[in-house]
Amino acid sequence: MRFDLTDLRLFLAVADAGSITHGAADAGLSLPAASERLRDMELAGGVRLLERGRRGVTLTEAGEALAHHARLISRQMAMMRGELGEYATGLRSTVRLLSNTAAIAELLPQRLAAWMAANPRIDLDLKERQSIEIARSVMAGFADIGILSAAAAQEGLELRPFAEDLLVVVAAQDDALARMRQVRLADLAGRHFIGLSGSALQDHIAAQAAAMGMQLRYRVRLRTFDGICRMAGAGAGIGIVPRTAARRMKRTSGIAIIRLADGWALRRLSVCIRAGTELSAPAQSLFRHLTQGTPAA
């Protein structure tokens, strides 16, 4: 039985995503290549590792055993790279950081700028994910550090407070919503939305709507919160954005800001790492910077 590190990383990605398609994407492989590797792993071991169904995949008992050992190997490899990196002066290193949409768009650029300027030999592999995916990826060793909603954290993660993220509704000043102090998502049924394209935050909002049997109707999807605020201010539709973005754009876009009263709209963001893990020196430096002055949660 012979598995290489790519096999093990792919298997863990599939196990954590519950999907060969999503696992292949996280491991940086095409779906056909990933499927062939998984079949070869099962043939090499002489056991079935995955139960394949219409809704995804689950691990067999043998698959659970492989996942356990693969995580141990993944963590050991990360520790080895970190220790070697401390001796490899002059070489570049990379820290893997996952974050939700609000932190990437509104908070991280300012928080990271000074640290990156002071550490010119450290690069960041920064990716946007939903909070629940961030928790799984950090636990599995696919990321060094995550920034997520504390509500999505799971046992085995060490959390430190980072910021509060309050979602608000933005609309034109002459919209009927502008006269309201707060509104719930259910009250917006039938309204036309300006959405965010390819965003973990938009997926989160859509999931909350689906949970109450509501489907959001989008007139257009844009790439930035600024664009959403400008179109909402012009009366093209309404949007849901972080309060920091809405306040920043209020003067230039002419929007009205209405508090979103649903409990899930207030998210306490945390910086997370796997509890008990030994971070590489660059990752330790970034973790200290992001959590400076904040007590452990």
UniProtKB/TrEMBL annotation:
Q: Extract the Gene3D superfamilies matched here.
A: Periplasmic binding protein-like II (3.40.190.10), Winged helix-like DNA-binding domain superfamily/Winged helix DNA-binding domain (1.10.10.10)
Using the record's annotation, list all stretches that form the HTH lysR-type domain. Answer: 3-60
**Which InterPro entries does this entry report, sorted A to Z?**
HTH-type_LysR_regulators, LysR_HTH_N, LysR_subst-bd, WH-like_DNA-bd_sf, WH_DNA-bd_sf
Transmembrane parts of this sequence = none
Give the superkingdom in one word: Bacteria
Q: Which UniProt keywords apply?
A: DNA-binding, Transcription, Transcription regulation
GO cellular component terms, alphabetically, are: cytosol
Among PROSITE patterns, the record links this protein to: HTH_LYSR
A Gene Ontology MF term for this entry? DNA binding
Pfam families reported for this sequence: HTH_1, LysR_substrate
Concerning its family, UniProt says: Belongs to the LysR transcriptional regulatory family.
Protein name, entry field: DNA-binding transcriptional LysR family regulator
